[in-house]
Design brief:
Structural class: alpha/beta
Oligomer: single chain
Shape: elongated
Strand content: 5-15%
Distance between the termini: 61 Å
């Protein structure tokens, strides 16, 4: 639940500013420019700060929006208001075309790719004859309502800031939703998100398009504010500056985009106005000082100015706790469910010349806890990754409920009822425990991005959060439900991962070293929970190095060594198996 009253206060203040007697027109122009920059930065907050996709090319999407409305309103006499949807559509279509190529890139290739097409589009704008080449398009008609023409900065001010406020609300609504959590999960890599059904290419493309549409909106407003469009404002240099704005304000915060726009635009104006007088007109000195001040600011507030400002804010918004009486439909289970849930037959995985999993065969039956153990490097986590679709098999077969699932993508694996945790915890540290766990219920919701932005998803969202709350309380972390996941101990984070996996309503639960980092009593509570799950009809396959925990809990134990299964049986039989003793102790039994 988003606390709305600060938004109303901000809107009232911004509406009152132009009405202040004696307000200099220069400051209104400055506020107009801040609003235009804030729209682009807001999209970058979602794209870069939240989604983890760095883009230096957003200025090009401003160009698409600006040139579309400029061309339609001057050459074809289309009303600027009717040109608005066209500007947004052109920006969105360009984002689809560029995004299908760009979002597939990773690491440093992604920002390099955005720089490349940002520069290319800037030169394209300057070479196309029908949009005026370097001279651009002039005499663009102003926005008008009836007979009122918005010819001065005061009149268009309200349109610009209304667009900023509406965009901020829609963006916050999107982030506070099922789709928003999927986008936020991207920043920690795609493996965990995909394990709970998130279609990561689709989520990346969605946020890429959304950021481009906001930039296109800014471009549309810019064209009718300046009433002339040239390629210069849409250069790669401008794209870098927009990213600066988002980072300075706080790349993970919607209002950080607005604050960053204010800081950068005002700072640039002050430096350009006063430094030439102070230093005798030395060329480009303001750019040097501007860069130094931004570096100093980021040293003071590495996460941006907005979180620093909020750390001084005495009031904290309180989230209304979900109504746990709300429920999600459970997984439909067949009354004739086979005795064997998971069947692994001669599974093999080869990395180059290294055989990580060597023709391993075992099964997991209904209402059974099976432990997969072995020394470090034995192939246990690789086997988990083969089962859950993170890795493809080199050979062999894996079936679940009688159907082959080997080489299926993780999103399909989780749909059939297999959920997992990870050897190295994969939570989003700056999301709360509740939000992290709710990602596990992603496939059990249905609301999309549009309904989330318009707040039509509240019933669906309430059920998802209620399910997440129940699972958090089930694993004993109810007191930490509103804590940031990154503030918890490693052991608690592992328990949060289990709660997230339980939100899938799985038939088979895969736990990768769940007891690592837990104290004795915490291990006892975890063991009791796993026995309760087994007695309730769920099967568990776990990897664990704590032999005391395994031997007291497991119904059956499978032992791997150098990728090969060397033993399988009850805990009592495994304890005395000479091959197992040799593998662990490195000597003959």
């Amino acid at each position: 639940m988003i606390d709305r009253w600060p938004l109303f206060v901000f809107a009232a203040v911004m509406a009152a500013i132009p009405l202040i007697p004696g307000m200099p027109p220069f400051w209104i122009v400055l506020l107009d420019n801040i609003g235009l920059a804030a729209l682009v930065a807001m999209g970058l907050v979602l794209l870069t700060g939240v989604g983890g996709l760095t883009s230096f090319g957003q200025a090009a999407f401003c160009g698409f929006g600006a040139y579309t409305t400029a061309l339609l309103s001057t050459a074809y006499g289309v009303s600027p208001w009717l040109a608005l949807p066209a500007s947004l559509i052109v920006s969105g279509v360009a984002a689809v075309i560029l995004g299908l190529i760009t979002v597939r890139l990773s690491g440093h290739y992604l920002p390099l790719g955005t720089i490349a097409w940002g520069i290319g589009l800037y030169y394209l704008f300057s070479k196309l004859e029908f949009i005026g080449r370097n001279d651009g398009i002039s005499n663009i008609p102003p926005l008008s309502i009836g007979g009122f023409r918005m010819l001065d900065p005061h009149s268009i001010y309200f349109v610009i800031w209304t667009a900023v406020l509406i965009s901020a609300v829609l963006t916050m609504n999107l982030l506070d939703s099922r789709t928003g959590r999927a986008i936020r999960a991207l920043r920690r890599g795609h493996i965990a998100a995909e394990a709970f059904g998130v279609q990561t290419p689709r989520a990346k493309l969605l946020v890429f398009i959304y950021a481009a549409v906001l930039a296109g909106l800014s471009g549309w407003l810019y064209a009718h504010f300046q009433r002339a469009v040239t390629p210069t404002p849409f250069s790669a240099h401008a794209g870098i500056e927009y990213l600066f704005i988002a980072v300075v304000g706080g790349a993970g915060y919607v209002w950080g985009g607005v604050l960053g726009a204010g800081i950068v635009v005002i700072l640039k104006e002050i430096l350009q106005s006063y430094l030439p007088y102070i230093f005798g007109g030395m060329a480009q000195l303001e750019t040097t000082v501007f860069g130094i001040l931004l570096v100093l600011l980021l040293q003071l507030a590495p996460s941006g100015a907005w979180p620093l400002l909020m750390s001084w804010w005495p009031f904290r918004a309180r989230r209304k706790h979900p109504d746990t009486a709300l429920t999600l439909p459970g997984r439909v289970r067949s009354p004739t469910e086979p005795a064997v849930l998971l069947q692994i037959e001669n599974a093999r995985k080869v990395f180059g010349g290294v055989i990580a999993v060597n023709d391993v065969s075992f099964d997991v039956q209904t209402r059974e806890i099976v432990a997969l153990i072995g020394p470090n490097g034995a192939g246990k986590s690789t086997t988990f990754n083969l089962i859950t679709g993170v890795l493809t098999t080199t050979g062999g077969a894996i079936s679940f409920l009688g159907k082959h699932v080997d080489n299926a993508p993780p999103q399909e694996i989780v749909k059939v009822g297999i959920a997992r945790t990870f050897q190295h915890v994969k939570l989003v540290p700056d999301m709360t425990v509740l939000e992290n766990v709710a990602i596990g219920a992603h496939l059990r919701g249905s609301s999309g991005a549009i309904s989330s932005m318009l707040r039509l998803d509240r019933a669906d969202e309430a059920r998802l959060l209620a399910e997440a709350t129940r699972q958090i309380e089930r694993v004993g972390l109810g007191d930490q439900i509103d804590q940031l996941a990154g503030s918890l101990s490693l052991g608690q984070q592992r328990i949060v991962e289990i709660a997230r996996a339980l939100c899938v309503d799985p038939v088979l639960l895969l736990l990768d070293e769940p007891a690592a980092g837990l104290r004795h009593m915490e291990k006892q509570r975890l063991a009791a929970l796993l026995r309760q799950l087994r007695d309730g009809g769920m099967s568990v396959l776990l990897v664990e190095h704590d032999m005391g925990f395994v031997m007291d809990l497991a119904d059956r134990v499978v032992v791997l060594d150098f990728g090969t299964k060397i033993a399988e049986g009850t805990p009592q039989a495994i304890k005395t198996n000479p091959d197992v003793i040799k593998a662990y102790l490195g000597a003959e039994a």
